[in-house]
Amino acid sequence: MALNGSPIWGCAKTPSHLGVSDWGPSRSGFSLNLRCDLRKWECRFLGSLAAAQTQRATTPVDDEKPYLSVADTSGPIQKARNNESRGFHKDLNLLPKPLTANDLSSSPADGSKVRVAYQGLPGAYSEAAALKAYPKCETVPCEEFEAAFKAVELWLVDKAVLPIENSVGGSIHRNYDLLLRHRLHIVGEVQLQVNHCLLGFPGSEKEKIKRVFSHPQALAQCENMLSNLGVIRINTDDTAGAAKMVASIGVRDTGAIASAQAAEIYGLDVLAEKIQDDDDNITRFLILAREPIIPGTDRPYKTSIVFSLEEGPGVLFKALAVFSLREINLTKIESRPQKQRPLRVVDDSNEGTAKYFDYLFYVDFEASMAELRAQYALAHLQEIARFLRVLGCYPMDIIP
Fold it and tell me: Nearest-CA neighbor of 159 among 179, 183, 187, 178?
C-alpha cells in the first residue's frame, strides 16, 4: 500500500496533541479524561489531515528503500510522451490495475489465469494452500521464501502464498522479516488443516522404519509417534522434499513425514495417517501481491501493520490502547528486534548507560481501513510511533 499518500499509511513522527496528563497514573480520571481528549483529537484530525499530508517526516527502517517522488519519474514520463508523439500507443486496458477483494474469489473464479509462487516442492502444504485460494492456478515452486517474494516483484508470478504461523509450532519469523524487507502487500490469508502422514517406499512396513526424513517443524509435531517407533530423525528443507528423497533412495526402512498428496506424486505408500500430536494443527498462510486491494466493509476484514516505538514507561500500553478505545480487536502481536540497530543506548542512571533491544511490533487487528475507527486508530498511533507501515488490509479466512 502506498505509504506517502496520507499520514495513516506511512511512517512519521509528529508532535503529540494528546496531553500527557491523560496517560498519567491517576485511576479515577483516566478513562473519562482520555475519552474526552480522544473526541477532541478526532475532530482536530479531520481539520489537520490535509495539512499533515504536506508536512511529514519519514524514518527509514532496516532495508527499506524510499519510493520515488513525482519529480524522480519525470524522465520515464517524458520518454512515454516522446513515444506517443512518434505514433506509439499502448492500450490502457493492458496496464496493471489495483486488485480488489473479488480477486480472491472471482475474475476468474477458479484462478486459472493466476500464477502463484510457494516455497517447497510439488506436494508441499504451501502448494495445497495456494490451490485452496486459487483452485486452478498455476503453482510455481521456489527453493526459499525470499525467492517467492522476488518472483512476485520481478513479475514472474502474480502472487505468493507463504506460511506465517502455525497453531502448534508458532510464528515463522523469517517471513516476518521478509515482509519488512520487501514492498509486497498482503491481499488475503488462507488457513489450512495440516494432516501429517508417514510415507514409505512401496512394500515398507511402519514397524520396520528406522529413519524418518522431514522438515523440523513436522518432526516436532509428530513427536509422540516418532518416540514410540524409536526412529532416527533427519531434517530436510520441506516435507515434499523429504518424500522425494525417500522415493529416490528406494529403501524400505526409510520413511518421510509429508502429505498424502506428496505420496501420490512421488509414488509412495501411506503407512499411517494423521500422526500429528495435536489434531487441531492449522497453518495460516498469507497471500502477497504487488498491489494492495481496495478495502471494503462487505465482509470481515483484517489489517496488518508494523511499527516501532520510542523507549519509555507505558509506551507499548499507549500504542495498544488506541485500538481498545475504539473497540478494535487485536488478533496477533509479534515482536522482532531491528536487525540494523538491535540495541539502543539510554542514559538512565548516574553510573553509566543501559542498552535495550530496539523492537518492531507486528500487529493484526479486525477492522477494515475503509472504517473511520481504523483510520483514527492508526492516525492516533502515528503520534506515538517512531515508524509505522501498513502491510495489508484483506478479507479474513474464517473457515479452515
Answer: 187
- Sorted by sequence, the CB contacts under 8 Å of residue 127 that are 6+ apart come out as 118, 120, 139, 141, 240, 261
Determine whether 213 is an active site residue. Answer: no
Q: Which pLDDT tens digit goes with each residue over 167-197?
A: 988 899 999 999 999 999 999 999 999 999 9
Is the Cβ–Cβ distance between 239 and 258 less than 8 Å?
yes
**Other Cβ atoms closer than 10 A to 262:** 31
Q: Are strands 254-258 and 211-214 parallel, antiparallel or unpaired?
A: parallel
**Residue 27 Ramachandran class (φ > 0 left, ψ -120 to 50 alpha, else beta):** alpha
pLDDT single digits (tens) 64-116 = 444 434 344 444 444 444 444 444 334 435 544 444 445 444 445 555 689 99
- Identify the DSSP state of 164: E
Catalytic choice (149, 201, 213, 285): 285
By the 10 Å C-beta count (0-12 exposed, 13-18 middle, 19+ buried), 89 is classed as: exposed
Cell numbers linked to 262: 506428496
Lowest mean per-residue pLDDT among 199-213, 223-237, 345-359: 345-359
Backbone angles phi, psi at 284, to 5 degrees: -100, 130
How would you class 13 by CB atoms within 10 Å of its CB: exposed for 0-12, middle for 13-18, buried for 19 or more? middle
Write the Ramachandran bin of 259: left for phi over 0, alpha for psi from -120 to 50, otherwise beta.
beta
pLDDT at 13 over 50: no
Residue 307 among the catalytic residues: no
Residue whose C-alpha cell is 527502517: 61
Catalytic residue, candidates 283, 303, 361, 365: 283
DSSP assignment of 86-114 equals TT----GGGS---EEGGGGT-SSTT-TT-
Q: Where are the alpha helices (DSSP H) in 66-221?
A: 74-85, 125-133, 145-153, 173-181, 216-221
